Amino acid sequence: MPFDAADTAAFFDPDMPGYALATIGGGAVDGLFSNGYAEVFGGAVGGAAPSFCCATADIPTVARGTAVTIAAVAYTVVGIEPAGTGKTTLRLEAV
Amino acid sequence: MANHRRRQIREALVTALTGLTTTSTRVFPNRVYPFDSADLPGLLVTWAVDEPEAITMETPAALQSELTMVIEGRAQANADLDDVLDAIDKEVRTALYAAGTLSGLLARRAAVRRIEADYEDGLEKPVGVIRLEYQLTYFCREGAPDAAP
């Protein structure tokens, strides 16, 4: 049975760990928010690296600079990383 | 016994660089752990190369050391990251020029020889670093790197 939109949506169910309802470009989008630790410059500086993973079909017009709000925190899209499996990860930058 | 001359120089540099407008008291010598948001914008003071050369014939000889110190400014910002790094550059260079020979620890005022910058965007805000490479000259004695000859 082919993987379809309903199967993809299961990954972004509200019961999933990390689930968040984001406002992207004015519309509500289900997805998974991650704000884990990362380092740059080979470990010289460390901090949070926010990202949001959602169904690719739910963000047809997203581009670098698109405004994203998650839990009342404002971000800007700085990276768009489609996985090729119907899901896309948006790398975010805090405003 | 006093500390190594290089340590004395490093500590004097930290003193001279503490309290600048942009980096305040966030000046770290020998930092090996990552800077976090509380440490930014900040300065890392490290040395890279020390090249001693005997300048007298007797034993122990007097040594002239050419020391390369790196003052690395680190900052995190969105739109004005370049401005922050340039401000760090200006303040560090102004302070080290005013510090002269570090109360006689150096043979002459430290000279900035190279400046480079780099940027990465893997965190919630872009991070930039600016590296100011300084050439310092100090003297010590063979077998006694803690004192002037």
Which characteristics define this entry?
heterodimer; A: 95 residues; mainly beta; six-stranded antiparallel barrel; 1 helix; 6% helix; globular; B: 149 residues; alpha+beta; 2 helices; 5 strands
Provide a brief overview of the structure.
In chain A, 6% of the residues lie in helices and 56% in strands.
Q: Can you describe what's shown?
A:
- The complex is a heterodimer of chains A (95) and B (149).
- In chain A, 6% of the residues lie in helices and 56% in strands.
- Chain A is mainly β and 95 residues long.
- A 6-stranded antiparallel beta barrel of chain A has the order 1-2-3-6-5-4.
- Chain A is globular.
- Chain A starts with a helix and ends with a strand.
- Chain B has 149 residues and is an alpha+beta fold.
- Chain B is 21% helix and 38% strand.
- Chain B has helices spanning 5-17, 81-98; strands spanning 27-29, 42-54, 62-76, 111-120, 127-141.
- A 5-stranded mixed β-sheet of chain B has the order 1-2-3-5-4.
- Chains A and B meet through strand 2, strand 3 and strand 6 of A and loops of B.
Greatest interface: A-B, 19 and 19 residues
- The strand line-up of the biggest sheet of chain A is 1-2-3-6-5-4
The fraction of residues assigned to DSSP E strands of chain B is 35-45%
Question: Major sheet of chain A, described briefly?
Answer: 6 strands, antiparallel, barrel
Strand residues, percent of chain A: over 45%
List the helices and strands and how they pair.
The complex is a heterodimer of chains A (95) and B (149).
Chain A: H1 5-10, E1 19-24, E2 27-40, E3 45-55, E4 67-70, E5 73-82, E6 87-94
Antiparallel strand pairs in A: 1-2, 1-4, 2-3, 3-6, 4-5, 5-6
Chain B: H1 5-17, E1 27-29, E2 42-54, E3 62-76, H2 81-98, E4 111-120, E5 127-141
Parallel strand pairs in B: 1-2
Antiparallel strand pairs in B: 2-3, 3-5, 4-5
